[in-house]
Amino acid sequence: MRAPRPYLMRALLALLLAALVAGCGFQLRGTGGTYNMPFHRIFVGIPDTSPLGNDLKRNLRGADTITIVDKPEESDAQVLLVSEARGRSILSLNSLGRAREYLLTYTVVFRVLDGKGATLLGPTEIALRRNLAYDETQVLAKEAEANQLYRDMQGDAVQQMIRRLAALKPPAQG
User: Keywords of this protein's UniProt record, alphabetized (predicted)?
Assistant: First the structure.
């Protein structure tokens, strides 16, 4: 049995188009993961026990030009955590008055100082929200889903922090 010609032509055309797009260096915006940071030495003033701090340090270490230092005096910039909060509120109720959907929130407030303590970026808030459909017959699964959503929001917050760091003006040399 012979394959119909229109399907074969479409498949070949799609394959050719995919090869052309891959060969030209096309890349979706934001997938490179590299930023041109104006700093070379950064102090991260977030406790080592914080998952946010560990995630931020890991992402900063991914950049070849960044060194994370242990003392603020040795740095070009200091990233300091002002606050971090998780929240959960009821978004909708079912006919029995039980929660059917929750709104999960994750808020991070941070600021950036230069090595001498002068403010480069005042307190900046990153607030993220996700909806969670709730089913009381699957409590453990929904709790695991909520934890995964919080981890995803934390990762999004770290990426936003890095983009804001990259957008800062380099400190004046003098």
Answer: Cell outer membrane, Lipoprotein, Membrane, Palmitate, Signal
